[in-house]
């Protein structure tokens, strides 16, 4: 049983990384979702998975030895909500960018980057003299 769980976890992680390295926006969002699910799975495995004894003891019953750990389950519930919010934000951002730029290929999403012929240089390199930078570094030390 442990081997099946570990194989499932690794398949999910590998699929998530493969999709995150894609050039298409929808695949990246799906990879982000799979990565969140894999992290949730790791958190679940960090608790005692094989204990079926409930963590909450009814009033009047004796204390149970080796109960299930409720902390990973609570963390996973929180992580699911955060992952859902991140996925919704990613989908809305992806749809907006696809409508604005006309493609889902992220290699064509270079609008925020300066053009090669724009002549833009950081302000520290405008005059060619780097003494200001050296003086700034001395002030930091």
Number-wise, the strands total: 0
Reported by name, the CATH topology of the domain at 1-49 and 68-104 is Helix Hairpins
Order of helices and strands: HHHH
Task: Work out the radius of gyration.
Answer: 25 Å
Mean pLDDT: 79
Oligomeric composition of the shown chains: single chain
Q: Report the total helices.
A: 4
Uncertain stretches of 5 or more adjacent residues:
none
What percentage of the residues does DSSP assign to strands (E)? under 5%
- Label the CATH architecture of the domain at 1-49 and 68-104: Orthogonal Bundle
Tell me the overall shape. elongated
- Helix and strand content put the structural class at mainly alpha
Question: What does this protein look like?
Answer:
It is a multi-pass membrane protein. The mean pLDDT is 79. Helix content is 59%, strand content 0%. The protein is built from 4 helices and no strands.
Which secondary structure elements does this structure contain, and how are they paired or packed?
Layout: H1 2-20, H2 25-46, H3 70-101, H4 131-140
């Amino acid at each position: 049983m442990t081997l099946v769980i570990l194989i499932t976890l690794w398949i999910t992680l590998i699929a998530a990384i493969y999709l995150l390295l894609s050039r298409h926006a929808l695949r990246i969002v799906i990879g982000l979702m799979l990565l969140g699910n894999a992290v949730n799975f790791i958190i679940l495995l960090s608790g005692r998975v094989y204990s079926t004894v409930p963590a909450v003891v009814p009033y009047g019953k004796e204390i149970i030895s080796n109960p299930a750990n409720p902390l990973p389950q609570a963390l996973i519930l929180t992580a699911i909500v955060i992952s859902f919010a991140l996925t919704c934000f990613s989908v809305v951002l992806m749809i907006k960018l696809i409508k604005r730029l006309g493609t889902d290929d992220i290699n064509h999403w270079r609008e925020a980057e300066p053009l090669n012929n724009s002549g833009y240089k950081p302000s520290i390199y405008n005059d060619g003299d780097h003494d200001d930078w050296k003086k700034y570094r001395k002030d930091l030390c």
